Structures are given as structure tokens and as C-alpha cells.
Amino acid sequence: MADHADAAENAAPIRTTPLNARHRALGARMVPFAGYDMPVQYPTGILAEHLWTRENAGLFDVSHMGQAFLVAESHEAAARALETLCAADILNLKPGQQRYTQLLDDEGGIIDDLMVTRSAEPEEDGVLMLVVNAAGKEQDYAHIEARLPAGVRLMQAPHRALLALQGPKAAEVLARHCPDAAEMGFMTAKSTTFDSIPVHVSRSGYTGEDGYEISVKAKKLEAVADALLAEPEVKPIGLGARDSLRLEAGLCLYGHDIDRTTSPVEAGLVWSMQKRRREEGGFPGAARIQRELAEGPKRVRVGILPEGRAPAREGTVITAPDGREVGIVTSGGFGPSLNAPLAMGYVEPAMSAPGTELSLMVRGKALPARVAPMPFVPNRYFRKPA
Amino acid sequence: MAETRYTKDHEYIRVDGDTGTVGITDFAQSQLGDVVFVELPAVGKTVAKGDEAAVVESVKAASELYAPVSGEVVEVNGALTDAPATVNEDPKGHGWFLKLKLKDPSELQGLMTEDQYNDYVANL
After folding, report:
1. Using CB atoms within 10 A as the burial measure, which of A49, A168, A331, B79 is most buried?
2. At CA A213, angle to CA A210 and CA A217, rounded to 5?
3. Which of B9, B22, B60 to mutate against chain A (most A CBs within 10 Å)?
4. How do residues A12-44 score in pLDDT, each as one tens digit?
């Protein structure tokens, strides 16, 4: 037995979330992830956790992620500042609206991906809430701070923790503690209370299911988590199932499917760059991104379904049926809801149409596979009737 | 009387006469998590001690099963192809991987006994 999982240990002292003792009490297997001691799975295992989330509701501790506020005297000032760093339309965010975007470098590569929310509170006009990946947060904050104009400040919020409650029963469960969450639409957020605890709730997530992310002060995290775990529909879910859920949902994992070498156009994230921004430019790497939009990128991210049962892992070389190398797998594994192996990766545009036959080079053998549309499992986000 | 020996990589080999049944230990399956795929060698393949003899994949990762001793693969557990979770449910019984005809039974002396393996795992 030799484990090929990423065993990268950090030399820096390992950090913990406020739920560390709770994870251990629940019997979690803890692993180092992005400098944090995190639960990869609980005793029931990744398959059961994944399927539970798709059928009921899963609770994820995502307190390792970076939360920060961008603060200016007006929404316009904060939005204009952030728009110099990413290609989303931040200016036209409505109060309480959330968007997914990426911090871009001058070559159009992706420094990190993040969620941006305009505060719903009129008295907080000029506040944008940011949630960035754990692994990149210090670098992201330094990058943002170094580029802010006078009058716009970045305020890190290390005292805040984050839970994700995901799955088709998330709404009915959360409504017992936070009644006004039920009527929220996908990608909206508000400040409210959970029981009597102040929380900031967004209707979003990383599983393809309906669900919420709940930001709360670190010292109140355990109370919120325990109240949710006491609900019969809720089980704790580790990072292992988080990864298989997001892969089935076709969502990118930073450092694997997107990084400094990939542009948002190559990554299939054009939807996250609203029309005004695509046309006006004015973001880092705009020359490359606008050229790729006009002429097409050199490679594109696609979903891939192997025909057999063997998973193809990250780094697997993709070839055309004639053996010519045409790309590489960036995430791959087994989809418990799909009950089959699945992968995503980058291929030449000519090889990217759904149904295109490919081969995956696994342990020296060419395994047949096909390009597949994503998500692999249909999204079930809550779209509020207009 | 069959005797079972263990490797530091958490394979077992249960020897009966000149043949050994090879699989992974309960500790190994618990560390791997849900097994979703097993790749077995061809019957007739010759392996040297320490060679990669099979592949076992969980949701998260691929791992190798190494030959505990040298020999020829005389049988494989084809049932694992359709029911890989058997490795989790019954690793030392129905979840066996392959049978080896031993080339040099003296190689077994270099492997751990059950007591030694239990001590080894207890100290990991």
C-alpha cells in the first residue's frame, strides 16, 4: 500500500478551526489542508457523506476559508476598486447580491477565485464581503491591499468562522433557526439571526445543491454547529465528500482546475465575467482575455467520463484515439451519485465537444473516455420566482 | 495449518502449502476509505517481492498493493471488479486480491507475524 494522495505537510505550525474538538469528538479523520487541521471524513466515510448531502443536508466546517471586508465610503468606490482586480460586474451588484469571480494577474491568469457580496444593509453601503480560499488568503490580501486606492480599505475578519449547510433539506432545517433564510434566492445574502446569534447567511455553496453558507463569530460557531447537528436531517461532512460533490457539480478547485496558468476563458468561466466588463476591459489581463473571447482559447476545460470503472486522477495525460497528446486531467476521481468515475481537464478546443472520444493514459494503458457536459449531476439551486 | 504474515505496507499473505492468499489488512482498508475500484494482475504473471501486484482506489486516491513475496499469480479475486466494497467489508475473507505460488518460501521469514504486525500498527 502506498498512498498517492497529496501528503504535502506544511512546515508552518498547523492551524485549527473553532470546531476542531468537535470534529475529533465526532470521530473525524483529520488531515492537514491548506495549513489547517481539517476533517477529511467522519466514520461513515466519503461515499455515505456524499450521498447524504445529495438526499438530506450536510454540514461542512469551512472556517479555514478567508473572510474579509472591502470598505469604502460608497458602493461605487468599493466596487470600482475591486473591478480593477477581477472581471466581474461588481458595480451593478444589488444590495444583498453575491457573485463568483477571480482575482486576475496581468497575464489573465487566476490568482484565486472568490465570492463577493454587496452588503444588504443600507447603513453598510460601501461594504463588500469577500470569501477567498484558505491556501491563498494571505497572498490574496496582500495583493488586494497593495492595489487599493486611497479611501478603500481591506479589513480581514479572522474572528469570523464559516459553515456550509448543503442539500435539498438545508432550507427546511435552517428555517427552524433562521426563518427568514427560507425566502432567500440563490446567490443572495443577508444579516440575520440564528436562534438569537447574529449571523450573515448567503444562499450558495460548493456542492451543486441548494444550501447556505453561514458566517458567524468564531466563539459562536460551536453553538450554531451543534444546533444544526442536532437536527435529524443533518450530518457532518468532511473535505473528501466536499471534493467529490463539487467535482460532480462541475465546479473548479483552485490550484487544480484553475491557477496562474489558466485564464477564465480557458476555464469555462466566461459566465462569471458580465458583458459590460468583457466589453469595457479595465481588468488585469484584459488584452489576453478579450483576445481569447474573440479568437477562442488554446485549450478549454471539459468534463470527462471514462468508459470503464477505473478513475483517472489529476495529472493523467489525455490523448486523441490516435495517441496524440491533447490535454491533461486536472481533477479526477469517483462520483458517488454518478456511481462512476469522472474527471475534468483541459483539452484542445477541437477535442472539446461533448461526445468526443478521448483516451486517458492510466498506468500505461489507454482507457477510452468521452467529453461530457458539466455539471455531471444536475444543479438544484434555489431560483426564486421572479 | 495456514499461517498469516504481514508487510509494513499493510498487505497480508495467508500461506497454505506452497500458495499464499494476498490482500490488504483491516487497518489498510480503514485508512483507504471506501474502495471504488480494484485492478488485478493477469493470472500467470510473475512478480518479485515488492513489485506492484494490484491497484486499489478509494474515492480520494489510488494506492498499490505490493507483492509480499516473489511468486506467480495463480488466481485473482474477479468478484472485486464488480464489488470493490468487499475490500472494506471483509478484507481478510472475501476481500482477498490474489493467490501467489511462492517462489522462495524463506522470504516469509522477513515478514511480520500477526503479533508483530499488531504491535506495528499500534505504534503508528
Report:
1. A49
2. 160
3. B60
4. 789 999 999 999 999 999 999 999 999 999 999
